[in-house]
Amino acid sequence: MFEQGKGENRMTYEEALRHYRSAVAAADADAFVAPLAGADDPEALLWAAWQTVTSFAAEAKSDQELARLSALVAAVQGQELSGVRVWELRVFTDLPVLGAQLREEWNGGRPQAEWTALNSFAARLTAAGTHDALLLGLWTISSALETFEGPAENLPAAVEWFTQAGDRLAGAAIHGRTYAARLGELAAQAGVTEPGFSVPRWAFWRSRLQTLSREGFKAIKRYDARIVSGGKK
């Protein structure tokens, strides 16, 4: 728990969460930004803010809700607070703490529907150029397509990456964007050697998706044509 400031803007962590639930529900970028102006501890406020955003993303029930939330983040990003920095990043231009909060969500524990919605949200931010979460997408896709355990749990979430940010994934593969990321055993058996994005890994994903589609996975059947073309409509 923390207390923000020593005057009128004094705010506990619980108060910050309540404030941000109201601001996010209303999609009010000004209300989202306001507590950070002159904050003694902007980092703590940002943890409350982005925790609220990821919670709303997980709870989203429609594309419209996720699109509205993504638009809010983009609007917030456009409101720089001069001189306010966290981790040497500009608030809000560089969206400090958002990436760390998303990374916390990738530790697991969400039911499938919430996990799928979170991945869709991160993919939308990536596609829009608001926040680059490609590494998180790589982890999700690897879990869905490259392991012996089967794709059922992670497959709908992986499909969201192909449908929402397929162009970004394909571009990362073409340019060989590297990460210190895990490489699943099925991909390794197929001859993929690079743990980041690569053309051979992209080709393996396409092949695996086509195989799963033939096996009757509905999440792929619906989007198969777009997936195998790299996100092109």
UniProtKB/TrEMBL annotation:
InterPro entries (UniProt xref): OpdG, Oxopyrrolidines_Biosynth-assoc
Domain of life of the native organism: Bacteria
Name under which the protein is recorded: Uncharacterized protein
Lineage: Bacteria, Bacillati, Actinomycetota, Actinomycetes, Micromonosporales
